Amino acid sequence: MPGWVIVVERKHQETKTVAATIRPGEVFAHRGDFDQGIRTLLPHYDELLTALSRCVPPTAQRILDLGCGTGNLSARIRQRLPQVQITAMDYSPEMLMQAQQKLPPAQTTFITADFGAWALDPQAFPPIAPVDACVSSLAIHHLSDAMKAQLFRQIFAHLRPGGCFWNADPVLAPHPWHATLYQRVRQEESAVAPIPARGTVVPCGYSHPDQLATLADQLDLLKAAGFEAVAAVWQWFGLAIFGGYVPE
Prior knowledge:
By secondary structure, the chain is an alpha/beta fold. It has helices at residues 34-41, 45-54, 72-80, 93-100, 115-120, 145-158, 176-190, 215-225, and strands at residues 5-7, 21-22, 62-66, 85-90, 108-112, 131-137, 159-170, 200-201, 228-236, 239-245. It is 33% helix and 23% strand.
C-alpha cells in the first residue's frame, strides 16, 4: 500500500493556544515546534536516531515505525537504507502531516492510529504484512506496563523469522540515586537554549503521560514476548535503546 494515507481514528482535536492540551508524545503546544524543540529538550536526540537507525539490518526491506511522530526516525533510516518500504503509524494527524513531507509517498504507508488499540486488536486495522524490523522512538513509554507487554507480543507476531525490534525510550531509574543523577544531567543539558512552550498532556486512547519502566523490566517483557538476544545497545543516563530478535 505504498503512498496511502490511512486514517483509522482521531480522538482529540487540535487546540491552537499556547496552553493547548496535547496527546502524549506531541510534547509541544504547537506541533510544528517538535523538530526544533526536541533537540533542545534532548540534546542527544540526533545521536539517538543515528544509533537506532544502525540497529536495522542492511538487508531489511520492510519496516514498521510505531509512534513515528514527525518521521525523523524513518527519515534517518532511509538515509542508510533507501530501498526500504516503511509503514509509519501514529495517532497524531498533525505530526503525520509533517512526516509526509520527509518520507517518499511511493515507499511509505501512513496509518493514523493508536498503536495501543492496534496491539489489542490488529484485525480492526488495515493489515500489515510481516516486516523485517520494527522500530519506535520516544513513544512506548506512554503505555502502561501491561500494554507494553501486549504491544511487544503484537510486534513479535508481525516480524519475520530473524527480524528485530528496537525501541528508543526514556527509562525509569532503578534506584533513587540514579533518578537524582538522571534529573540533574537532563536539567544541565536542556538549560542551554529556550524550549518551545509545552502543552498540557492529557490521555489519548491507551497512551498517558509518562509511565516509565526500568530497562531491566522491559528487557524481561521482551523475553516473555518471545524475543531472544535481548539487550540494551545504547544508553545515555535515562535514555536507552533496547530490543531483540525473533528466532529463525
